[in-house]
Each structure stands twice: as C-alpha cells, then as structure tokens.
Amino acid sequence: MINKLRITACALLLSTAGIAQEVEFTEYTLDNGLDVILHQDNSAPVVTTGVMYDVGGKDRINNKSGFAHFFEHLLFEGTENIAKGEWFKIVTSNGGKNNANTSNDRTYYYEIFPSNQLELGLWMESERMMHPVIEQSGVDTQNEVIKEERRMRYDNRPYGNWINEMASNLFKKHPYKDPNVGYMEDLDASTLEEFKEFFDIYYKPNNATLVVAGDIDITKTKKMIQDYFGPIPAGKEVTRNFPDEDPITETIEAKFYDPNIQIPAIILGYKTPGMIERDAYVLNMISSVLSTGKSSRLYKKLVDDQKQALEVGALNIPQKDYGMYVVLALPLGETSLDTLVHEMDEEIVKLQEELISQREYEKLQNQFENQFVNSNSSVSGIASSLATYQMLYEDTDLINEEIEIYRSITREDIKRVANEYLNPNQRVVLEYLPKKDVE
C-alpha cells in the first residue's frame, strides 16, 4: 500500500510539473511588421512588457563598434513626451522596475509593473520606439557612463577581459571578434548624425518583437498594442552580409596580461556552430558532463582527486552565427598551465574515444529535464524566453518543445560532436597571466 501511494504521488508530481511547464501564448504581426507575443497568466497581478530589437554588438555603422550597447543606455535619456531624467522616476513611482541588456545579437528592454499599469508600460515602450530624443548632451552623458562601466566590468575586474580576448583570437573576420561594448575610440569618434542614422536603421517595428506576459486580458491588450504601436511607421528592411570565418586548422597560441590578477588561467577556445544548430545543444550536454557539479569529470579529477586546479569549467557560449566553446582552469600551487592543458585534453579525448556510460547519460538527461521544468519560473523569465526563441531561434514553440531536442541526443551524438569540434588543431590556447609575469 505504501509503495502504491508513493508511485501515485510521484506520478501526480510529474504530471503537475508537466502542466506547469506548458507555456501558452498568442503570436501575431502588426501591419508595420512588429511581431507580438502575448502570454496570459492571471495567477498574480503582475505584467511584463518587453521589446527585443534585432540589433546587437555585431552591428556596425561606418565600421564603428559599440552602438547597440550604447543605445541600451541612450534610449533611457527621454522622449518627446518623457523629460530627461524622468524615465526611472515614472517607473518606480508606479510600482515598477525596468532594465535592459545587450548581447552580440539582440537588445532587450523591459518593464515589470503591477498589472493595472499595463497601459503605462506599453506607452513607454512605444515612446522609446517612436519619439526618442537623441541629442549631443545625452550622447556625451552616456559616453562617460559607458567608459565607467567598461572600467568596472572589464578593465579593472579580475579576469574581466578573458572572453573579449578569446573572441578576438577565435574570430578574424566576423564582428564577433570585437567586444560587445565596442571600442571607446569608435564611440568617441562618432557623430550625432551617426547615432541618429543607427537608430533609424535598427529601432523600427519591423526589426523588433513586443512581448507582454502576465495578468492580462488578451482582447484588451491587443487593442492597446494597436493603439500605441500600430501608428509607428516601418523602417527599411535590415540586411546583413557578414563574412564567413575560415576554419581554424592549427592551434593558435595567445597570451594576455591582466594587472588585476595574481593567479594565471589557461583557457581553451573552440569555434562552434550557431545556437540554432542541433550540435550546439549537444555541446551544452558536453559541458555538463565535463563540469556541472562536483561529480563532473573535470571537477572531480582536477579539483577533488588530483588537487591541481582551484577552479575548472567548460561552457558553450551560444550566438546566432557562431558559438564559442570554452574550457578553462586556474592552477593550484605549483601546477603548470601545460599540465592543466594535458589533463583537460585527456578528458576531451575520452569523450571522443568512448561512449559515456548509460548511468552518466541518464543523469545528464535528468539534469536537462530539471532545467527545463525550472526554466520559466517567473513571468518576466517567460517574457524574455518567448522573445528570444522567436527572434534568435525563429521558433517560439521551443519554449515548450526544446526539451525534445535534448531528449533526442544520444551517447553517440556526444562522441561525434566532441570529435568534430574539440580538437587541438581547431582551437585557441590563451594563457591569461598576471601583469607581473611580463618579461
């Protein structure tokens, strides 16, 4: 009787998790090209309004970098109907909060409000899209803000520049080679006309996705969206023609000296398929095998058993055009960087030569099932995921179906992908060193 009760309880739990994970949404496009996604969840009186623009660090104007990240800041300066310095005051005084973030591939602005302020959120985002004030004083202000941000996040932060250094060595042609935040000399040399031109190219409804998630009425929300966003004219179609990267056929050795660190790091970087490709999902699984949790292969070997590393990790960095796969470690004591490379390579070779065990495979599947169940635990998270899947993956249904990709990955896939992408002649070996080691 006890066993039967336990089985029933487990079945109920799994059934509930499956139901909770299903995300229902409504998707359509306005006449001006704005893609709209609505998700209704009336369980709490909260609503998220977000706009994702198909513009990121890879996009340039006159071959100058950093504009998308700059606009992440600049478009909070104010609009024709929101005075300078008032944006955040309006949000907080109405019980809300907001933020924005930029990747190499997209920029996302969002507000989280009590649901009775939905219309305010829609109006503010329509103002940002239609009526921003782009003037020299705002450009000058944000230029100083971004310089300070760069100092804090990159130049003065221990290990802050490793990802930029790896990208600059992995990519030679594609703009992924440059920092997402851009180069300060590019921004310093840019004119007000260039900033206005950049906005006119990329920040238009036909280059954006609006997502509204939370305590909403679908019919009423559609009406408000039409009222606020419908009149915004479409821009010209955005076209891109980035150069293809040549394959890496010989190991690239590089060094970087960071004055903010005392312990060196060794970083192995590989150029991998874009985020939409199935092999990118396999690489996520390989990362888990190598470094997720204390029982993972690299952690158990280098940190626990052999005590050769303070930290070790493997991660797949997804991007739309090309991904980056990185394996890194910090040595413990007198362990040399060459020793760490040898030991990490041993584990990669094992993946290339042997199938992972059935037990390890089942554990891996459980990890990704768990991540899937917990991936959309908040309305704001659901909003961001919906926009991301729609814009970058071109398949909004992935919010419910992505787990099927992971379920379809076999032990043979893991071996194949490790052999295809993770070879010494296809990588960058970056020694990330303390400044004092400069000869």
TrEMBL record:
Gene3D superfamilies: Metalloenzyme, LuxS/M16 peptidase-like. Residues 36-173 form the Peptidase M16 N-terminal domain. Residues 1-20 form the signal peptide. InterPro entries: Metalloenz_LuxS/M16 (IPR011249), Pept_M16_N (IPR011765), Peptidase_M16 (IPR050626), Peptidase_M16_C (IPR007863). Coiled coil: none annotated. Residues 191-367 form the Peptidase M16 C-terminal domain. Keywords: Hydrolase, Metalloprotease, Protease, Signal, Zinc. Pfam families: Peptidase_M16, Peptidase_M16_C. Belongs to the peptidase M16 family. This is M16 family metallopeptidase.
